[in-house]
Specification:
4 helices, conserved putative lor/sdh protein from methanococcus maripaludis s2 fold, OB fold (Dihydrolipoamide Acetyltransferase, E2P), elongated, 363 residues, six-stranded antiparallel β-barrel, single chain
Length: 363
């Protein structure tokens, strides 16, 4: 066999093999072009519930007006011991100070006691005389009245502490001492202020809001108080009133919030942050990351039969750092795209990486 014929027999199978390989590659390329593009996304479920826009500001913790109580004694005396100081927390029944009774007050009590004994003796004598027809009924009645008056006078002296040499001033409730204007050795008169105190929890915060935010706040709105120096949970509060003027120094509007929850953690004159919930209502709530915006407005993607569907929505107003209220032709049963929404197009096939609750859209 000639050399040319042998070469032809060798080259022909090789050429056929190359044609087969090229054909396979062509079919593979055509198959890849026909594969549908997909996006990997994280989804969340819409929920229906209450939501509010939060307005915040900073202020100072103070005692609510009318909540402070002045403690005094009904009779004068000498302050012998003081057991508390301003700012101290006290429990109900705690002895705050001891006041020695005024000698003149003791004298009044002794006089009332001897008057009662004398009136009792006089009534017995008058009744004996009446039994002997030596006294009239009116004289007996007068003696009985004298005894009643003497008993009342002694009870009154006993009620104001006249029977005690030392009078203990006790805390009427759990609270905080605001002021102690007297010291050991001071002589005080009846009714003089000895201690000013306030019940625990009787606190309010006077905060400043921008005029724009203050116009949205109304008395009675719910809110919360947070201490700026503590990481404790916020305390439930209520808007007591909103001033109708701008402070000329701070250029803010003063708003007063009264604590309605347990305010024992608050300290008088400490700084606090207030949160006020406005625009409250029932809404469809979505994670903030799920709501996108372009020239046409706000929209989100919902998963319908494995594909992304663009839904135009409105945002009624209430929102927080993580959630936003939405409205529109949404499907409550369809999940919304949270992470990966910017890579999704209307009608694109999607795969869910894992389901997230709308409380944690960024997890």
């Amino acid at each position: 066999m000639s050399l040319g014929r042998r070469m032809l027999l060798f080259v022909t199978p090789l050429a056929c093999l190359c044609l087969v390989v090229l054909a396979d590659e062509s079919r593979s390329g055509d198959s890849g072009d026909a594969t549908e593009a997909t996006a990997l996304v994280t989804t969340a479920t819409l929920r229906r519930g209450p939501m509010s826009t939060t307005v915040s500001g900073y202020g100072t913790v103070t005692v609510a007006p009318g909540k402070a109580r002045t403690l005094s004694l009904a009779q004068g005396g000498l302050v012998s011991e003081v057991h508390v100081a301003a700012g101290e927390r006290v429990k109900r029944g705690t002895i705050l100070m001891i006041v020695d009774s005024d000698p003149a007050a003791r004298l009044v009590f002794e006089h009332a006691r001897t008057s009662l004994a004398l009136a009792r003796t006089e009534l017995e004598r008058t009744r004996q005389l009446r039994a002997q027809n030596l006294a009239t009924d009116s004289q007996v009645a007068a003696a009985e009245k004298a005894l009643s008056d003497a008993r009342t006078a002694l009870d009154a002296q006993r009620d104001i502490g006249g029977a005690s040499v030392h009078n203990d001033l006790k805390a009427p409730f759990d609270g905080v001492v605001l002021e102690v204007p007297v010291a050991p050795g001071d002589r005080v008169t009846a009714g003089a202020t000895l201690v000013r105190t306030v019940a625990e929890g009787s606190m309010q915060v006077v905060a400043g809001l921008s005029p724009q935010d203050a116009r949205r706040v109304k008395s009675g709105m719910s809110g919360a108080i947070e201490s700026v120096a503590s990481e404790r949970a916020s305390i439930d509060a209520r808007v007591a009133h909103v001033q109708a003027m701008v402070d000329p120094t701070s250029h803010l509007v003063k708003v007063v919030l009264e604590a309605t929850g347990d305010a024992t953690a608050l300290l008088t004159d400490e700084g606090a942050r207030v949160l006020i919930f406005v625009d409250s209502g029932e809404f469809w709530i979505a994670p903030r990351a799920a709501v996108l915006r372009d020239q046409a407005g706000a929209y989100l993607f919902q998963i319908v039969e494995g594909h992304a569907k663009r839904v135009t929505v409105s945002t009624p107003g209430p929102e927080s750092e993580r959630e936003i209220a939405v409205d529109g032709p949404i499907d409550p049963s369809a999940k919304v795209v949270v992470l990966g929404a910017y890579e999704v197009e209307d009608g694109m096939a999607v795969r869910e990486s894992r389901h997230e609750s709308n409380d944690e859209p960024g997890a």
